[in-house]
Amino acid sequence: MEQDEPGEAMRELRERRLGVLELLQAAVGSGLAVYAAWALLLQPGFRRVPLRLQVPYVGASERQVDHVLSLLRGRPGKMVDLGSGDGRIVLAAHRCGLRPAVGYELNPWLVGLARLHAWRAGCAGSVCYRREDLWKVNLRDCHNVSVFLAPSVLPLLEDKLQAELPEGARVVSGRYPLPTWQPVAVMGEGVDRVWAYDVRSGGSAGQASPGPSSASVPGAPNSQAG
Ligand SMILES: C[S@@+](CC[C@H](N)C(=O)[O-])C[C@H]1O[C@@H](n2cnc3c(N)ncnc32)[C@H](O)[C@@H]1O
Question: Domain holding 96: CATH number?
Fold first, then answer.
């Protein structure tokens, strides 16, 4: 027995090392799997977008979509969702009468998914999803704009909206407010909250003039509702 002890100790050590190696392999394997999923599913389309402008996909909540539509319903003119994801806001906008409704999205998988949803809803020919960089889309003819983007890109977005949107356009921002514009209405609570802004004349073209910090919008019922 005494003689076996060093051999047994070596065996035990080897087994333990194997255990550590297996753990290491599993960690590296799952890291690679996460990277592959990110590279294949989320990264396409974003290669030419600077890292600081890349916004990951998170779908708007059902309530968030409802609030966006409450603040846009009945308005004339083209509606666009900048970074339209799986197309839920565009499809809902089309269904409540906003025409044309167009989604701009860089991720080709999400554009495909959005088109599939539209097709399943019987709206394939009527809603439009374009695989385009929102920073390169000209917003001159957009009267209703929906955005749900990361706070880090909103200052730059404000500049773009201010420079391009026509007078009378409305912007609805989901989950995060535009940093310096004054909202004309706020709806919902927490992650479902949305802010509406109207572009008025005065100052530079497309500049949003100050409005009530949080109040109702004419024609938007229950605009403080949660
Ligand atoms: C937070 S998600 C919102 C998705 C959708 N609007 C919604 O409310 O369900 C932001 C989306 O913007 C897209 N996106 C980010 N940067 C973009 C860009 N430069 N051009 C087009 N789409 C972009 C992302 O791929 C993602 O789908």
Answer: 3.40.50.150
